[in-house]
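Slide 14.
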Amino acid sequence: MASGLDNAIVIGADTIVVVGGEILGKPSDTDDARRMLRIISGRTHQVYTGLCVIEIRNGTTIEKSGIESTDVTVRRLTDSMIERYLTTGEPMDKAGAYAIQGKGAVLIERIKGCYFNVVGLPIYLLSLLLEELGMEVFDCH
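Slide 15: predicted structure.
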């Protein structure tokens, strides 16, 4: 994506959920989402987001990257709660089969760490990487 650009900033991020050593990406179908929700029910898991910022200035490329981790505890979910949440369609394109920023917020008992990381873009880490590139985040338009 960044190739062929002379002056640009490219930001890429990807998020996964890890519970008990198992990586939970986006569910492949409703049954997979149901399985994931049952796995995270009543447990604490980790959300990891890898973030990369590429600055291209006059054809020269500078890359900065980092990773953010947040602990998320999900309340104990009944089968009925899982089925009702699945009917919203929200779990289908989210790592771990839930969206903390949507209806899935009611599934979350607590978090330790960066909320925005769980959403999928750790803003604080992004600001640090931009600062490393010499950008003042309050001056961005």
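Speaker note: The first strand starts at residue 7 and ends at 19.
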